[in-house]
C-alpha cells in the first residue's frame, strides 16, 4: 500500500477549514435483541458466548419470521435522546435499509430513516483545559446491528491477506442507537481534540444512563468520523470521507488529524477528494480507502411493512425525563469541587477511567486523596502489569476497608500493598488477609524495645550521637528494627523509643 503524502498540520489549517461530523453507534445492553427474543451479546451476561449461539430466526432473516420491537430498547433510546437534548418524536417508524453484505442475513437492515425517534439536540463537550464546545445533534435513531466477520489467516486480522472469513450472527439484531451530528464548524486547530472529547462525552452519557457499557474495545460504542476541508473563504463544503468503526477515543483523535493532513496534501497538489469510507489502522496510525460512500438513495429505503410506528405516550416521555441522572459534566465539576482537587489532579482520575471507582471509595468513607492514590497508583499498576481492568481487580468497599486499616495504624503503606495483593489474589477481605498473613503493625512497646536493644548492640555509638544533637542518627536503628520485624514495626513509635533511650525526649 502506497504511503499517503501528508501536509504539516499547522500549514493545512492555514489553507483549509476543517468541517467535522460524527456518527456514533451505541449498543444497548437490553437482555434481548432489538427484534427477537434471542439473548443480547451486548448484555454483560453474554459477553463470552460462542459464535452463532445467540440467534433466532428473525436475526437470520429466515422465511416466515417476523420482528417484534423490544420495548426496553425503545425506553433506552428515548432516555438517550433526552440526555442529548433532543426532541422526542410523537410518532416514529422503522424502515428497511437495503444492501448486501455476508453478515446481513436478511440483505436489509431495519433502521429509521426520515422519521427518527429523537431529533434536534446538542451535547456540551468539555476539552482538557475546561473549554466548553457545543456539538449540534441532528438525530438519534434506533436500528439493529449486523453480524460480524472473522477473517482467518494473514497477519492483521483484516480481510486483506486472509485465507477465508467466518460469519458470526450473534451480533445480528443487537439494539443500536445511531447518533448523528450536524456539520461541526469552527473546530480549527482543536478539531482532533474536539473529536476525542465528543466521543468521550457520548460514552460518559450512555454509561451514566446505564443503557450501555460503552466499552469501545468490545464494540459497544463505535464511531464513524467524517472529515472534509474547504479552502479559506469558500462557502461550499468540501467532499467528505468517513473513517469507519474507530474503536478508541485516542484513535478518533488521531484519525481526524491524519485525514486533515492527508486531504490537505491532495487538495494543495491540485487533486480531488474521493467520497468514500476509509479504514483506520491502529498499528500504523493511517487510514486506507474502503468503498465509495453510498448516498441515501442507494439504500432504497422504504417503510418496514412488518412493524407499526412507535408512538410513546407523553406521560412515558415525562417519566423518563424526570428520571435522568445528573449530566456527566455537572457531576465531574461537583466532584472536583467536593474533593478539593486541582484540575490536573482531577484529570488524572478522569483519564484513568476510574472516576466511578474513586467516587464509590470516597462514599465508603475514604478521603478523596487516599482513594485517588490507591486507584490511580498501585491498583492501576497491577492491572497494567497483568493486562487486566483495574475495576475488575478489587471493589471500592475493599479499598476503603484497606485504607481504614492504614488510618487506624494497623497497617503501614508498605504492608497495605501486600494486603492489597492478597485481596486481588482472592484471599478474602483486607482484614482476613491481615489475619491470615499476620501482617498487622507491631505496636507493643515490649517487642519494639527488644528489637531496638538488639539493633543498638550492633550500633553502640548511635545513642551518643543522638545525645550530641545528631537526631538523624536514629534512622539507622529504625531501619534495622523495621528489617528485623519485616516491616511490621510502627516506625514513628520506634523513633520515639530510641529518642527516649538517648534522653532526647
Layout of strands and helices, then pairs:
Blueprint: H1 9-15, E1 16-27, H2 57-60, H3 71-83, E2 87-88, E3 95-98, E4 108-111, E5 118-126, E6 132-144, E7 148-152, E8 164-168, E9 175-181, H4 191-209, E10 221-231, E11 241-246, H5 249-268, E12 276-281, E13 286-292, E14 302-303, H6 314-322, H7 328-339, H8 343-352, H9 355-363, H10 368-385, H11 396-407, H12 413-424, H13 430-437, H14 445-458, H15 462-467, H16 474-484, H17 491-501
Parallel strand pairs: 11-12
Antiparallel strand pairs: 1-9, 1-10, 2-5, 3-4, 3-14, 5-6, 6-9, 7-8, 10-11, 12-13
Helix pairs in contact: 1-5, 4-5, 9-10, 9-11, 11-12, 12-13, 14-16, 14-17, 16-17
Which class of secondary structure composition applies to the elements?
alpha+beta
Count of discrete alpha- or pi-helical segments spanning 4 or more residues = 17
**C-alpha end-to-end distance:** 77 Å
Q: On the 0-100 scale, what is the average pLDDT? A: 89
Low-confidence stretches: none
Strand order of the largest sheet: 2-5-6-9-1-10-11-12-13
Number of strands: 14
Beta fraction of the residues? 15-25%
Biggest sheet record: 9 strands, mixed
Overall tally of structural domains = 3
Helix content: 25-40%
The shape, in one word, is: elongated
Q: Compute the gyration radius: what is it? A: 29 Å
Amino acid at each position: 500500500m502506497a504511503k499517503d503524502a501528508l501536509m504539516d498540520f499547522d500549514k493545512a489549517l492555514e489553507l483549509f477549514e476543517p468541517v467535522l461530523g460524527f456518527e456514533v453507534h451505541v449498543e444497548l445492553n437490553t437482555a434481548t435483541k432489538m427484534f427477537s427474543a434471542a439473548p443480547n451479546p451486548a448484555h454483560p451476561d453474554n459477553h463470552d458466548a460462542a459464535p452463532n449461539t445467540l440467534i433466532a430466526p428473525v436475526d437470520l432473516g429466515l422465511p416466515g419470521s417476523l420482528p417484534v420491537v423490544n420495548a426496553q430498547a425503545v425506553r433506552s433510546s428515548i432516555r438517550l435522546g433526552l440526555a442529548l437534548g433532543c426532541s422526542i418524536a410523537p410518532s416514529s417508524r422503522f424502515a428497511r435499509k437495503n444492501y448486501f453484505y455476508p453478515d446481513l442475513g436478511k440483505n436489509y437492515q431495519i433502521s429509521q430513516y426520515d422519521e427518527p425517534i429523537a431529533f434536534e439536540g446538542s451535547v456540551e463537550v468539555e476539552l482538557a483545559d475546561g473549554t466548553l464546545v457545543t456539538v449540534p445533534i441532528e438525530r438519534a435513531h434506533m436500528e439493529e446491528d449486523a453480524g460480524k466477520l472473522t477473517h482467518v489467516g494473514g497477519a492483521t486480522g483484516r480481510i486483506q491477506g486472509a485465507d477465508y472469513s467466518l460469519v458470526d450472527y450473534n451480533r445480528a439484531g443487537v439494539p443500536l442507537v445511531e447518533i448523528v451530528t450536524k456539520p461541526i464548524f469552527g473546530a480549527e486547530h482543536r478539531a482532533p481534540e474536539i473529536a476525542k472529547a465528543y466521543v468521550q462525552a457520548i460514552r460518559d452519557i450512555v454509561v451514566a444512563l446505564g443503557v450501555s457499557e460503552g466499552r469501545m474495545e468490545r464494540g459497544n460504542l463505535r464511531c464513524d468520523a467524517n472529515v472534509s476541508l474547504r479552502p479559506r473563504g469558500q462557502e461550499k463544503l468540501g467532499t467528505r470521507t468517513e473513517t469507519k468503526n474507530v474503536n478508541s477515543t485516542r484513535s478518533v483523535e488521531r484519525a481526524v488529524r491524519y485525514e486533515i493532513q492527508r486531504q490537505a496534501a491532495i487538495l494543495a497538489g491540485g487533486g480531488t477528494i474521493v467520497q468514500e469510507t476509509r479504514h483506520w489502522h491502529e498499528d500504523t496510525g493511517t487510514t486506507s480507502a474502503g468503498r465509495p460512500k453510498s448516498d441515501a438513495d442507494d439504500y432504497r429505503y422504504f417503510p418496514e411493512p412488518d412493524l407499526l410506528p412507535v408512538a410513546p405516550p407523553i406521560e412515558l416521555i415525562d417519566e423518563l425525563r424526570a428520571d435522568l441522572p445528573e449530566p456527566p459534566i455537572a457531576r465531574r465539576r461537583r466532584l472536583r469541587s467536593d474533593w478539593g482537587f486541582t484540575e490536573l489532579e482531577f484529570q488524572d482520575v478522569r483519564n484513568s477511567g476510574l472516576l466511578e471507582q474513586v467516587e464509590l471509595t470516597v462514599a465508603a468513607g475514604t478521603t478523596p486523596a487516599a482513594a485517588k492514590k490507591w486507584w490511580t497508583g498501585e491498583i492501576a499498576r497491577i492491572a497494567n502489569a497483568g493486562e487486566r481492568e483495574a475495576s475488575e481487580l478489587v471493589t471500592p468497599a475493599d479499598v476503603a476497608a484497606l485504607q481504614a486499616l492504614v488510618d487506624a495504624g494497623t497497617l503501614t503503606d508498605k504492608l497495605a500493598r501486600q494486603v492489597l495483593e492478597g485481596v486481588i489474589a482472592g484471599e478474602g477481605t483486607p482484614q482476613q488477609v491481615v489475619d491470615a498473613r499476620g501482617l498487622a503493625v507491631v505496636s507493643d512497646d515490649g517487642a519494639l524495645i527488644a528489637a531496638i536493644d538488639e539493633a543498638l548492640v550492633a550500633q553502640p555509638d548511635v545513642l551518643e550521637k543522638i545525645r550530641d544533637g545528631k537526631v538523624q542518627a536514629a534512622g539507622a536503628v529504625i531501619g534495622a528494627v523495621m528489617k528485623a520485624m519485616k516491616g511490621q514495626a510502627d516506625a514513628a513509635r520506634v523513633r520515639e523509643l530510641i529518642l527516649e533511650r538517648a534522653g532526647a525526649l
